[in-house]
Specification:
The protein is α/β, with parallel strands linked by helices. The chain is 30% helix and 16% strand. The longest helix is centred in the first third of the chain and has 19 residues. Bound molecules: ligand MGD (2 copies), iron/sulfur cluster (SF4) and molybdenum atom. One ligand MGD binds next to helix 5, helix 12 and strand 20.
């Protein structure tokens, strides 16, 4: 019997903090997981989720083999050949009868955290698109779509945006983010909370604007409670005060680099602190004090995240965060809001192939049923259900979900849950039989996080240092199991007409890689522009995601540029450093490189954004007696899918309605009892947790719950089901410019259960 212990250094693939872990293994079992103190990026930081990757790997409910749904509606485990044959049997008639216009793909959140999926989702969506698929869906429109719109228009790319230089700022205002739970979002730093503590230790200030006194607010200098959905009013008022007091900074380094600051300031005119006070719930004097604090600080910065995106004015708010950062002279300056320098080039940083004009276009086509205009290629996620269940030409009859659980994560969840059984073909690439995949005719599971190589790309765009890391698999996968990138290529080729079981995956991989290289050579502004795609292909070695990762590293700022810069980095060079390579720290002075707008300047004014201001003006005097519902996250949850990990489920019930004691009293509900919450979308019974951490008038529910559904295989999660907050979130309330759903600030009533 072997009892030798092996020591593996890997990066946790669960969230944007990208922590380095040390995994000790004996006899094919995880002995322990702790933070890797030698990791050049995270230096030992980790959270409770990272330590449970062993339980996730060993979860008996995790699928190791495909499942097929029988005529009795029950899923049975089958071999891969049978699963591929069944996928073909389901997909082909739809594609033959209606073509790919009856097909859609749902791209879930873990795709961005999984090298295999992130590298090849473009192959699936691209091939299905080439075959005629009209649109794909993602939770982007319940997440960061406002940031994508603002990034595109102001900075020139969907994923371009500056981040706070956490190590050097002395005054940080955080709106709608709770890094104590999320560990940072569109802001990658190991230990964000440690950074906040350091800011205060340096004598600086951290202000948290949030309707809830979160654990982040608890550790800030000041908590400013705000009525959900009104941050844009607050920010306009702050901008107006800065201008009126002569506190707009026009530093030399931004001269000639920004268009539209004066127009933006002029737009702030109607928004006096007095006028927005009632709507925001913030006294005019407090607004003035926040503005004065920013004006007086040496290095002030605003940072915002999901609470300011998934709300009524997500785009205007996100836009104003950057406008105010510009007005403070903070952008592109050390100690300000700076553009990170990712060491890896990702195809995600390229323009989508359908955006060919000088300016990005929005609203180019509309959804079939609701007539919603596309924004950056997507409709609001809630369109998916109606596109499936509404008869007629162009109805979605086949759906491929990839690492997504929209039955839980999409507003209008009830309709989607009822629509999915109407599909003629539903294929889920997923590792669990859960609330969404229980509807799938075929489930094709991927490997566990410890069985696959890992490396991140997108998140380095928002990272407080430039690093490269590569993780080898801790465990070898079972022989004969396809990797997820192979599954995606197979399904993509199927959309183009090749029977699923007959796809030559290696040939498709070469074809996809060649196509990508051609696009990079043709498109202006990529590291391959003007080069020869054949030569580029010949310079690469390996297959699959490793080949693409090699490409990304070699085309990055420290890369060997596929041979043009001998001695530059390659994947092999990175592999030789299991603790990673730290190449640069954040700094200012990157604007010219990072901003890719047509003018090359930060372009603040766009009708697509500013046309929404009248809607905001209408909001100022709106009053309502209703409470409003908001969302929250917990450190030991990860959206809907870590609730089957026993170690993460210990402790008190987390799926509770947080409500201020005064509101609880008025509603006639009590701590520990049940409440009925009713919105225009429906009604739910939920355990009550009273706390003065909620501002009066606002209640909070976590998302990602609502387990315990028949036909699922999630023993631990189903024992703690909770309720699905998206049964309460309506489909018709959206942030107009970005198509983003409002899950923060939904009018609701709370009452005691009948009887
Ligand atoms: N542990 C854990 N980490 C995660 C996740 C998880 O589920 N669990 N999910 C990951 C994902 S997918 C994402 S997108 C990120 C999100 O990361 P964050 O943006 O940090 O997300 P939340 O923790 O939900 O914090 C949002 C905050 O916005 C507040 N809020 C609600 N409405 C408003 C409003 O109108 N105005 C203001 N100013 N604040 C408001 C809420 O009270 C809440 O405190 O987290 C990621 N990290
Ligand atoms: N009310 C409300 N709704 C929200 C939010 C909110 O704050 N409030 N937040 C929104 C946000 S920010 C997000 S990102 C979405 C998340 O929405 P989704 O992406 O739809 O949902 P997740 O819960 O992340 O589900 C992940 C799925 O991936 C599967 N999975 C996990 N690991 C793997 C893997 O390695 N391979 C494969 N193939 N599958 C895997 C899981 O089994 C699960 O089915 O929810 C959104 N919905
Ligand atoms: S913070 Fe936790 S979940 Fe996120 S990468 Fe680090 S260990 Fe993993
Ligand atoms: Mo997200």
């Amino acid at each position: 019997m072997s009892s030798e212990v092996s020591d593996h250094r890997v990066t946790c693939p669960l969230c944007e903090a990208m922590c380095g872990l040390r995994v000790l293994v004996r006899d094919s079992r995880v002995l322990s997981i702790r933070g890797n103190g030698d990791d050049v990026w995270s230096r030992g930081h980790l959270c409770p989720k990272g330590t449970t990757l062993g339980q996730l790997h060993e979860d008996p409910d995790r699928l190791r083999m495909p499942m097929v749904k029988g005529g009795d509606g029950v899923h049975r485990t089958v071999g891969w050949d049978e699963a591929f044959a069944e996928a073909e049997r389901r997909l082909r008639p739809v594609l033959e009868e209606d073509g790919a216009k009856a097909l859609s793909v749902y791209v879930g959140n873990p795709v961005a955290h999984n090298l295999d999926l992130a590298s090849y989702i473009g192959a699936l969506v691209g091939m299905a698109g080439a075959a005629g698929m009209p649109a794909y869906y993602s939770p982007g429109t319940v997440d960061q779509w406002p940031l994508n719109v603002v990034g595109t228009l102001l900075f020139g790319g969907m994923w371009n945006a500056p981040i706070p230089d956490l190590e050097r700022i002395d005054h940080l205002v955080i709106l709608g983010a709770n890094p104590a739970a999320s560990q940072g979002s569109m802001l990658s730093a190991p230990d964000v909370m440690g950074h906040l503590a350091d800011i205060r230790r340096r004598g600086g200030t951290v202000v948290v604007v949030d309707p809830r006194r979160t654990p982040t607010a608890d550790r800030a200098t000041e908590w400013v409670p705000i009525r959900p959905g009104t941050d844009a009013l607050l920010l306009f008022a702050i901008l107006r005060i800065l201008a009126a007091d002569g506190d707009i900074r026009r530093p030399a380094h931004l001269e000639g680099k920004v268009d539209g600051l004066d127009e933006a300031i002029a737009l702030a005119d109607p928004f006096t602190a007095e006028r927005v006070s009632a709507a925001t719930g913030i006294e005019a004097a407090t607004i003035r004090r926040i503005a004065a604090g920013l004006a007086a600080a040496q290095s002030p910065v605003l940072y915002s995240r999901i609470g300011t995106c998934t709300q009524e004015f997500g785009t205007l708010t996100t836009w104003l965060v950057f406008v105010v950062n510009v007005a403070l002279g903070a952008v592109d300056r050390r100690g300000g809001a700076v553009f990170a320098k990712p060491a890896v080039f990702s195809p995600m940083f390229m323009r989508p192939p359908d955006q060919t004009g000088e300016r990005w276009e929005f609203g180019r086509f509309r959804s079939r049923v609701r007539g919603a205009p596309e924004v950056l290629g997507q409709f609001p996620l809630s369109c998916l259900a109606e596109e499936i269940d509404t008869p007629g030409e162009g109805r979605i009859r086949a759906l491929i979900t990839v690492a997504g659980n929209p039955v839980i994560s999409a507003p209008g969840a009830r309709r989607l849950d009822m629509a999915l059984p109407k599909l003629d073909a539903m294929i889920a690439v997923d590792n669990w039989l859960n609330e969404t995949t229980r509807h799938a005719h075929v489930i094709l599971p991927g490997l566990s996080p410890l069985e696959r190589a890992h490396s991140d790309d997108l998140y380095w765009m928002y990272a407080v240092a430039s690093c490269l890391k590569w993780s080898e698999p801790v465990f070898p996968p079972d022989p004969g199991r396809p990797a997820e990138w192979e599954i995606l290529l197979r399904l993509g080729a199927a959309a183009l007409g090749v029977p699923v079981p007959e796809v030559d995956v290696a040939a498709m991989d070469d074809m996809y890689t060649t196509g990508l290289l051609s696009a990079m050579c043709d498109q202006p502004g990529t590291p391959l522009t003007g080069r020869d795609p054949g030569e580029a292909f010949a310079a690469l070695s390996g297959v699959g995601p490793a080949r693409l990762a090699d490409l990304g590293i070699r085309l990055g700022p420290w890369g060997d540029q596929l041979g043009l810069r001998p001695g530059g980095l390659t994947l092999d060079a990175v592999r030789a450093h299991p603790d990673g390579l730290r190449l640069a720290e954040l700094d200012g002075g990157r604007l010219d490189e990072a901003v890719t707008t047509p003018s090359g300047r930060i372009e603040l004014i766009h009708p697509w954004i500013t046309d929404d201001i009248p809607r905001l003006l209408d909001r100022i005097d709106r009053t309502s007696a209703d409470l409003v519902l908001t969302s929250r996250r917990h450190l030991r949850s990860n959206n809907s899918w870590l609730h089957n990990v026993p170690a993460l489920m210990r402790g008190r019930d987390r799926c509770t309605l947080l409500i201020h004691p005064d509101d609880a009293r008025s509603a006639g509900v009590a701590d520990g009892g049940l409440a009925v919450v009713t919105t225009s979308a429906g009604s739910l019974e939920i355990p009550v947790e009273t706390s003065d951490e909620m501002m009066p008038g606002v209640v909070s529910l976590p998302h990602g719950w609502g387990h315990g559904r028949p036909g699922t295989r999630l023993e631990v999660a189903n024992a703690h089901p909770g309720v699905n907050s998206n049964l309460l979130n309506p489909v018709d309330v959206i942030d107009v410019p970005s198509n983003t759903h409002v899950v923060n600030g939904v009018p609701c009533r709370v009452s005691a259960p009948a009887g």
